[in-house]
Amino acid sequence: MESITIKDVARICGVGVSTVSRAINNHPDINPETKEMIMQVIKENHYVPNNSARNLKRSDARAIAILIKGISNPFFNSMIKVFEEEIQKKKYTLVLQHVDEWQDETEVALELEKEKRLRGIVFLGGFASHSEDQLKKIPVPFVLSTVSLLGEEYKNDYSFVSVNDVEESFRMTDYLIRQGHEKIAILCSSENDVSIGKKALESHRIPVEESRIRHMDPEVDTYSIKSGYKLTRELLDDGVDCTAIFALSDSMAIGAVRALIDAGKKVPEDISVAGFDGTEMAAYYNPAITTIRQPAEIMAKETIKLLFDSIKKKTKVQQLIFDGELVPGESVKKRK
User: Fold this and answer.
1) In the chain, what's the furthest Cα-to-Cα distance?
2) For all residues of the chain together, what is the average pLDDT?
3) Angle of helix 17-24 versus helix 32-44 axis, rounded to 10
4) How far apart (Å, rounded) are the C-alpha atoms in residues 7 and 182?
5) In terms of DSSP H, where are the helices of the chain?
């Protein structure tokens, strides 16, 4: 069955297309009975207004979308605040869109662009493994922000802003090793995450024990407190021997600490815990989480700057990689 058009609705109702449009957009200059008739026909025939066509006629269609993968990660909160401020300064509107772990961000972006007539897109979070063919289909400028680079030199033809998470995670794992920890468990998302911690272990000639590598449950929010708690309980239930846990987000690290305490363990006396992101929550948690701090506000401002430069065609592709900062906390203890 072919989808009904606005012209079909007008024909059925015996009115003009402009009258149907006024009914859809709640214009006051339309007879209430006529409006009710039009809306009833729309309902009965499952007509879906073409937002793209409507937006094309708007001179103020100035929307920027932020597609967030890993919305449960509070690290993104400070970035979203900066995005909102910077976008408003430019007199644009902000569209926030959560992308589930199993969804393809590029497909979501293509659908959203059609619906909202976007002027630009920021892909926030996730991995730098998007299909080149899909990315080429996106008709508006976009920037990848805080993507995981997976240790590969990025040669693709699009802009991104990130820390070198492989090098920074190497730094944290190396720090734990230098604190006397060799039995380090890693709480991660995918197989790609694992390589981040393995690199440091292998450089110190420490065997990688697969039982200490734990992957997030796809049914649980990624990089969340709940995920960190669940994976740590599984480590304990399986009797895995470890003296430190490195979680790939501060939220997961906090979940790990809670799971250890609930199991009667002391942190860091029995098991040390480290995170990644440098969130305010981690700094004020008890014990304060040892972490890698990402320059969230700077990265957010540079992301928006790159995007608007691209919209205005001021610059070509730019790829910015920032350094993180290792912030020692109370959750890691040096072993004698």
Assistant:
1) 86
2) 85
3) 90
4) 70
5) 6-13, 17-24, 32-44, 51-56, 75-89, 105-116, 132-137, 165-178, 191-203, 225-237, 250-262, 280-284, 296-311
Sheet holding 159-163, edge to edge: 93-99, 63-69, 120-124, 142-145, 159-163, 319-322
**What's at 24, amino acid-wise?**
I
Count other Cβ atoms within 10 Å, centred on residue 60.
9
Residue that has been written with the tokens 């793209």 in this structure: 52
What is the spatial distance between Cα 230 and Cα 106, in angstroms, rounded to a whole number? 30
Confidence tier at 4 by pLDDT (50, 70, 90) = confident
Give me the pLDDT at residue 147, please.
73
Question: Does 56 have pLDDT greater than 60?
Answer: no
The C-alpha angle 310, 147, 138, rounded to 5 degrees, equals: 45
Q: Identify which has the larger pLDDT, 255 or 167.
A: 255
* Helix, strand or coil, per DSSP, at residue 63: strand
**Whether pLDDT at 129 is above 60:** no
What count of other Cβ atoms lies within 10 Å of the Cβ of residue 37?
16
- Please name every residue paired with 7 in a beta bridge, in sequence order, or none if there are none: none
Q: Tell me how far apart the alpha carbons of residues 328 and 289 are, in angstroms, rounded to a whole number.
A: 8
Question: What DSSP element (H or E) covers 151?
Answer: none
What share of residues in the chain are helix, strand, coil (percent, to 5)? 45, 15, 40
Higher pLDDT, 266 or 217: 266
Asked whether residue 54 carries a pLDDT value surpassing 50, the answer given is: no
In this predicted model, which residue has the larger pLDDT, 78 or 219?
78
3-state SS, residue 122: strand
CA dist., res. 95 & res. 73, Å (int): 18
